[in-house]
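Blinded run. Sample ID left blank on purpose so nobody reads anything into the name before looking at the predicted structure. Input follows.
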Amino acid sequence: MSSQPHTEIHEEHGEHEGMSRKKIWQVFFILLGITAIEFFIALYMVPQGIIKINIANPIYIILTLAKAFYIVAYFMHLKFERVGLVYSIIVPILFIVGLILVLTNESHHWVDLR
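Blinded prediction complete.
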């Protein structure tokens, strides 16, 4: 009788096979490594002139998107959800990003008219 409520608690809270303590620490160290690379680029390589800022910015964007993926996928458990829920979140975000890009391009057009 005591083992059955224990299994019900795990199912009720939605514990996933892939989210063990080991996996959480693994994702933590991946995020820590990405952050360390960002700091190394920002505090050492850019001031020393090894990498120019116009090259460093796309690197920052790629690393930040990688960190966002790990945070959303593992800590917000989106990796373990059904495909329909994932698409219902990702598709509107893609439309928002597209809108931001279009509006940014349009704003440059209006600035150039001055």
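Unblinding after everyone has recorded impressions. Residues 7-12 have pLDDT under 50 and may be disordered.
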